């Protein structure tokens, strides 16, 4: 049976089993190396207040939040996009 991807959609290599994590949207348990990780800084201060404080010279700290999405939720939230077969082959040959 042909494979769709050389890596089978994972980042595992030859290390055996990997741990499981929960998707932050649907709660499904997925292998840690298969989930799509999205990291972005989140400010704890409202944007209007943050602008006023920055004008006065205050330093606004941001917390970095990492979210784990299963493949289904990442596609529906448009974090990743479905690519055509030719595009997938090009990306595999580059790496």
Q: In which range does the helix fraction lie?
A: 25-40%
Question: Poorly predicted ranges (pLDDT <50, ≥5 residues)?
Answer: none
- What about the largest sheet? 2 strands, antiparallel
Report the principal-axis shape: elongated
> Considering the protein shown, what is the CATH homologous superfamily of the domain at 20-82?
Ribosomal protein S26
The structural class is alpha+beta
CATH class categorisation of the domain at 20-82: Alpha Beta
Could you explain the architecture of this structure?
The protein is α+β, with helices and mostly antiparallel strands and 95 residues long. It has a domain at 20-82: Ribosomal protein S26 (first zn-finger domain of poly(adp-ribose) polymerase-1, 2-Layer Sandwich), CATH 3.30.1740. Helix content is 26%, strand content 23%. It contains 3 helices and 4 strands, in the order E-E-E-H-E-H-H. It has helices at 47-55, 71-76, 85-94; strands at residues 20-22, 29-31, 36-43, 62-69. The strands form 2 sheets. A two-stranded antiparallel ribbon has the order 1-2. Strands 3-4 form a two-stranded antiparallel ribbon. The radius of gyration is 19 Å and the shape is elongated. The mean pLDDT is 89.
């Amino acid at each position: 049976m042909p494979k769709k991807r050389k890596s089978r959609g994972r980042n595992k290599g030859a290390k055996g089993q990997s741990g499981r994590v929960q998707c932050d949207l649907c709660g499904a348990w997925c292998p840690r190396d298969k989930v799509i990780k999205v990291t972005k800084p989140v400010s704890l201060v409202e944007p209007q207040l943050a602008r006023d404080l920055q004008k006065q010279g205050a330093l606004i700290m941001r917390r970095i939040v990492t979210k784990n999405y299963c493949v289904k939720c990442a596609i529906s939230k448009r974090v990743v996009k479905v690519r055509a077969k030719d595009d997938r082959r090009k990306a595999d040959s580059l790496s």
